Amino acid sequence: MTGIVLAIDQGTSSTKALVVAADGTVLAEAEIPVPVYTPNPGTVEADPAALLASVLDAGRQAVAEAAVAVDVVALANQGESVLAWDPATGRPESACVVWQDRRAAEVCARGQANAARLTELTGLPLDPYFSAPKMRWLRDRLGSGGVITTTDTWLLHQLTGEFVTDAATASRSMLLDLSSATWSDEAWELFGLDEPRPRLVRNDEIVGTTRAFGREVPVGGVIVDQQAALWAQRCREWGEAKCTYGTGAFLLTNTGDRPVRSGAGLTPSVAWDLTGQRRWCLDGQVCTVGQALSWLRDVGLLDGPGDLDAVGETVDDTAGVVFVPSLAGLAAPHWQPSATGGFFGLNLAATRAHLVRAVCLGIAAQVVDLVDASTADLGGAPPLLRVDGGLTRSRLLVQMQADLLQAPVEVAAAPHATALGVADLGLRAATGHSLPDPRPGTIIEPSRSAEWAEQQLSRWRSALALSRHWSEL
């Protein structure tokens, strides 16, 4: 066989690796968890050594299981997470500051005079969610020396020795000129960052070679995770949208060959930058989704995320309980980093099952908020919402999403869309060819009335308003 891709999806809480043949067959897969530490409110960190080990271990396990030599390695990254490291040795000089970390709020507060200009340049609101505020926060604490980059640049340096990132990842940093997809000198200056800048590469470009997984092979097809899923879901035309449910939930809508400046709180980004083709998208985020279910496990309401349906489907309502899943702040379209989550309407009739069901409804309701924002910006709703990610295995969550949207939802046939998207880009980088189109997904139609959906959303939005007010006290 030729055209074998090792596709690595380095995510927030785990790293997945798939070995994919040129005909689209998944020959093997492996997944290694990545511990994430939240010792204090607003602090979300990971150990860089564990991050790198997860990439190497998952990749090597998948290659060993497939029992074939791979021809190219492709890498998707988690986006806005950053770390400091020594470019001479590659040794980390800080923890990995994860995209959910809110400690850079102080950087954003003192930079408000530049906020409007930064948004004009980059399309992004000044918020600790993005890379540059975290980079500035780290630089303030570490002083001079070393480099501070997003995790993809460090991982690619470990694999290839190169110093690169891609335009889609860079468009999530607040350091890229959105219109030209090149580094913005002015944005770097406004953040007071004097870091060496990684070379910007295309998403279908070979960036170097690695021996980390056997014989020396090229590395190409690098991209931020959510854009990889957008590509895999074949959202190639204006207005097509997907939502990935992982640690967080991320709605991306294709806006074609130009960026759309959102008036509804979404963030414009580069969708992909290929040879001869550059596309943009609008992005919306729910910060805690899979992580909200992990929290349910930690507090004893679930044995694990896999028990979601077994518990939540034992009742058919929430007993009036509403959950707001802003456990790590609110991103789009509200942009309130200090926001906290909560249960509202607790009563003596509420059981564990009702609370679990309320968490599902809260997640789905927040995704509806993102779809509504996208509709406001583009002047129309997507004809179909394509969904992927591990949590789409939950019948309860997907059905609730369709019911609240009052629109059909297509569940990807394979849940690992990010890894398959980066596999396709890696194959294009190495051979110029693409994987076959994916199998059609399962269409989930709404099963509840529009009146039910409106009532649930109205209650949820009232709870959201109360939660936001509480966070401001």
Give descriptors for this structure.
single chain, 473 residues, alpha+beta, 34% helix, 23% strand
Description:
Strand 22, helix 12 and strand 23 form a beta-alpha-beta unit. The chain contains 14 helices and 24 strands. The protein is of the alpha+beta class. It is globular. The chain is 34% helix and 23% strand. Helix 8 packs across helix 13. The model has no long low-confidence stretch (mean pLDDT 94). The strands form 8 sheets. The chain has a 7-stranded mixed β-sheet with strand order 18-19-17-16-22-23-24, sandwiched between helices.
Summed up:
The protein contains 14 helices and 24 strands. It has helices at residues 48-66, 105-110, 115-122, 131-142, 151-160, 167-170, 185-190, 225-232, 290-298, 308-312, 352-378, 395-405, 417-431, 450-472; strands spanning 5-10, 14-20, 26-33, 45-46, 72-77, 82-85, 96-97, 147-150, 164-166, 176-177, 182-183, 199-201, 206-210, 217-220, 223-224, 241-245, 249-256, 267-274, 277-286, 322-324, 342-344, 385-388, 409-411, 442-444. A hairpin with a 5-residue loop joins strand 2 (14-20) and strand 3 (26-33).
Poorly predicted segments? none
Structural class: alpha+beta
Helical region count?
A: 14
* Approximate strand percentage: 15-25%
Write down the overall mean pLDDT. 94
Shape: globular
Rg, rounded, reads 21 Å
Q: Going across the major beta sheet, what is the strand order?
A: 18-19-17-16-22-23-24
* End-to-end C-alpha gap: 62 Å
The profile of the biggest β sheet is: 7 strands, mixed
- Residue share in helix: 25-40%
Number of strands: 24
